[in-house]
């Protein structure tokens, strides 16, 4: 079951096609990475999903219903460019934004106090936004985004400007919200964060969907059949000198007590293991090296 489905979505601005026939589905209850270089079309897609703009063609469904004007109340969106009113007091602003999402005044105040107590920022209630640091403003923006408990949460670079302690605080809350059933779209340029947080990804480039699927499956798809072998003692001299290509294996790199070996695409890793044991190598560790999402990202975008 999907919380969000896009079918052949197209968006043009004058003569520029920002979104070009994009289709993907976000599984309900997942944390989903929306990736792409600058200008790829991610922001245009998010604006369509949040009903800020409309697609020129194609369909968008939220929780099985065609996207409509009632759906923004079921979505929480924290944009990369923060949208707080700097002259307003924090409490007034949060109350205003919560009620825009359909909450009653009493419900908004209760939920906001709970969130601010959780973040230990209740004493900021009567401060003006401009009096707060960028990291503090980030916390306020996060509270404003999640206070109405949306079905779908869209976070665009949510850790930007946060120190490691506050980044971990927000990350823990993201995990907790997801555990409570909220589906999350996570848009970022930081591939290491995607590997840590996301189960699924879609990669957008030049308005097109060029890659999507489970993170683990994507990494398997782009593996290059390179294995790390840690060994004890010395490598046999004959192995150092031998041309392994006749055995369908190639030593790519020799590190201290470790060799990186590439095998032919149709060769078996067990055959490499047996070959090394037969050569007298004392093997301490043996594992396949999968590409990082950053490497896959660069390869796909440059390609």
Structure, described:
It is a single chain. The longest helix has 16 residues, at 164-179. It is elongated, with a radius of gyration of 25 Å. The two termini are 33 Å apart. Helices cover 33% and strands 30% of the residues. Strand 9 and strand 10 form a beta hairpin. By secondary structure, it is α/β, with parallel strands linked by helices. It folds into two domains: 2-220, Rossmann fold (3-Layer(aba) Sandwich), CATH 3.40.50.300; 224-302, Alpha-Beta Plaits (2-Layer Sandwich). It has helices at 42-49, 90-100, 105-118, 134-146, 164-179, 191-197, 215-221, 237-241, 269-278, 293-302; strands spanning 2-13, 16-27, 31-35, 57-62, 65-66, 75-78, 152-156, 183-187, 200-205, 208-214, 226-232, 249-255, 258-263, 282-289. It has ten helices and 14 strands.
Query: Rough shape?
Result: elongated
CATH topology of the largest domain: Rossmann fold
Please tally the helical runs, counting DSSP H or I stretches of 4 or more residues: 10
Secondary-structure element order, N to C? EEEHEEEHHHEHEHEEHEHEEHEH
Would you report the number of β strands? 14
Structural class, by secondary structure, is alpha/beta
The CATH architecture name of the largest domain reads 3-Layer(aba) Sandwich
* Domain module tally: 2
- In the CATH scheme, the class of the largest domain would be Alpha Beta
Major sheet size, sense and barrel closure: 6 strands, mixed
Point out poorly predicted stretches: none
Average pLDDT for all residues: 89
| Spatial separation of the terminal alpha carbons | 33 Å
The proportion of strand residues reads: 25-35%
Helix content: 25-40%
């Amino acid at each position: 079951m999907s919380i969000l489905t896009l079918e052949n979505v197209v968006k043009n601005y004058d003569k520029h096609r920002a979104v070009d026939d994009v289709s993907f589905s976000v599984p309900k209850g997942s944390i989903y990475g929306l990736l792409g270089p600058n200008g790829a079309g991610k922001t245009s897609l998010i604006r369509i999903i949040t009903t800020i703009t409309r697609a020129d063609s194609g369909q968008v469904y939220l929780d099985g219903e065609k996207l409509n004007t009632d759906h923004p109340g079921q979505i929480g969106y924290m944009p990369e460019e923060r949208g707080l009113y700097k002259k307003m007091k924090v409490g007034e602003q949060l109350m205003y934004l919560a009620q825009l999402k359909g909450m009653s005044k009493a419900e908004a105040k209760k939920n906001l106090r709970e969130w601010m107590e959780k973040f230990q920022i209740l004493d900021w209630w009567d401060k003006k936004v401009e009096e707060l640091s960028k990291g503090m403003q980030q916390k306020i923006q996060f509270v404003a985004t999640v206070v109405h408990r949306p079905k779908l949460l869209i976070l665009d670079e949510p850790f930007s400007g946060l120190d490691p302690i506050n980044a971990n605080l927000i990350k823990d809350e993201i995990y907790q919200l997801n555990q409570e059933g909220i589906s999350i779209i996570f848009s970022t340029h930081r591939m290491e964060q995607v590997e840590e947080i996301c189960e699924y990804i879609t990669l957008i480039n030049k308005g097109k969907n060029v890659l999507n699927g489970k993170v683990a499956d994507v990494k398997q798809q782009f593996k290059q059949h390179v294995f790390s072998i840690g060994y004890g003692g010395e490598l046999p001299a004959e192995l150092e000198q031998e041309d392994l290509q006749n055995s369908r294996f190639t030593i790519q790199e020799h590190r201290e007590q470790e060799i990186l070996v590439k095998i032919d695409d149709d060769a078996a890793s067990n055959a490499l293991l047996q070959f090394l044991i037969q050569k007298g190598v004392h093997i301490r560790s043996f594992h396949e090296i999968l590409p990082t999402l950053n490497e896959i990202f660069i390869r796909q975008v440059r390609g």
